[in-house]
Write a structure and sequence with these properties.
Blueprint: E1 14-20, E2 23-28, E3 33-38, E4 46-50, E5 62-64, E6 76-81, H1 84-98, E7 103-106, H2 113-116, H3 121-140, E8 143-153, H4 155-166, E9 176-180, H5 188-202, E10 210-216, H6 223-236, E11 242-248, H7 257-268
Parallel strand pairs: 6-7, 6-8, 8-9, 9-10, 10-11
Antiparallel strand pairs: 1-2, 2-3, 3-4, 5-7
Helix pairs in contact: 1-7
C-alpha cells in the first residue's frame, strides 16, 4: 500500500484547486485564505495569505487598503514584505495610519531565513516570487507592475540586495528594494563580490531602481555593516540609482523597522 504523507492540515473548506508551475494553489474559504503548496523544490515551502481586509485574522497575510482598493480604480503599488512572523502587525499598523494607497503582501519565512534570504538559496526564492507569487497577485488584483517593492528586515534585509544582484544587468523585477538592518556580515565576502560584479556589468549604463538601506543606532544593530555597504555603493556613482541611507540613531535593530517602513512609503509616493 502506498504510504501517504500529510503536507498541510487545518484546512477549513478547501476549494478551487489549480496546478501552476509546480505548485498546488487552492482556496480555503473557511479561513479566507489562498494557499500555494510547493512540490518540494523549495523544501515544501508553504505560502499563506488572506484576501480579507481584517488584519486580525491568523496566518500569513495578503492585505489591501480598505479605503482605497477599488476593483475598477487605478492600479496600486504592491509591497512584497518578508518576515511576516516578525513584522506583520507593525507594517499593517503603518499602512492603516498613513492610509497608504498600496497592496501589502506579507510572507512568513517558514523557518527558512538562512536558506532563502542568503546565497545560494536566494536564487530559488527569487524564482518563487517572480514565477509564482507575483503572477498570481497581478492576475487577480489591480496591481501596478511598474511599482513593485521588495522589503526585508535583518537576514530578510539581505535578500533585496541579493535579488538586485541576481537580475543585473537584465530587467529588474522590482522598482524599489528596501533593506532594514540588513545582516550583511553573514555573507560579507559574497555581498561585496556581488556589488563588484554589478559595477562591472553596469558601469555607466542606467540603473533605474531605488535602493533604501535603513539602519538603527541603539544597542546591538547592524549599522556599521549597512553604512559600509551604502558607502561602497555611493562611491560607484551608479547612473540612475536612487540610493538612500535612512538612519534612526535612537532605535534598535527591530524597533527601527516600522519608522523606516513609514519613511520608505513616503519615498514611494513621492512625498517629502
Amino acid at each position: 500500500m502506498t504510504e501517504l504523507t500529510v503536507l498541510v492540515d487545518g484546512i477549513e473548506m478547501g476549494e478551487s484547486p489549480r496546478w501552476h508551475d509546480g505548485r498546488l494553489w487552492f482556496s480555503d474559504w473557511g479561513a479566507h485564505q489562498v494557499i500555494a503548496l510547493g512540490d518540494g523544490k523549495f523544501g515544501g515551502y508553504l505560502v499563506r495569505f488572506t484576501t480579507a481586509d481584517d488584519p486580525d485574522l491568523s496566518g500569513d497575510f495578503f492585505t489591501k487598503s480598505t479605503e482605497f482598493y477599488i476593483e475598477d480604480g487605478d492600479p496600486l503599488p504592491v509591497i512584497y514584505a518578508l518576515d511576516a512572523q516578525i513584522r506583520l502587525q507593525s507594517l499593517v499598523d503603518v499602512m492603516q495610519q498613513t492610509g497608504a494607497r498600496a497592496i501589502l503582501v506579507a510572507i512568513h519565512d517558514m523557518n527558512r531565513r538562512q536558506t532563502d534570504f542568503n546565497m545560494p538559496g536566494a536564487y530559488d526564492y527569487l524564482a518563487f516570487l517572480t514565477k509564482d507569487l507575483i503572477p498570481y497577485i497581478e492576475a487577480n488584483y489591480r496591481a501596478d507592475p511598474r511599482r513593485r517593492v521588495l522589503s526585508g528586515l535583518s537576514t530578510g534585509g539581505n535578500f533585496p540586495f541579493h535579488a538586485l544582484y541576481i537580475e543585473t544587468p537584465s530587467k529588474w523585477s522590482f522598482a524599489h528594494y528596501w533593506s532594514s538592518e540588513g545582516a550583511f556580515w553573514q555573507q560579507a565576502d559574497i555581498v561585496y563580490l556581488e556589488e563588484g560584479w554589478m559595477f562591472d556589468a553596469i558601469r555607466r549604463s542606467p540603473f533605474p531602481v531605488t535602493l533604501i538601506l535603513a539602519r538603527g543606532g541603539a544597542g546591538d544593530t547592524n549599522t556599521v555593516y549597512v553604512r559600509a555597504l551604502y558607502d561602497q555603493l555611493a562611491s560607484r556613482q551608479y547612473v540612475g540609482l536612487r540610493l538612500l541611507d535612512l538612519y534612526y540613531p535612537q532605535l534598535g535593530h527591530v524597533p527601527m523597522d516600522a519608522p523606516a517602513f513609514r519613511d520608505s512609503l513616503q519615498i514611494l509616493f513621492g512625498q517629502p
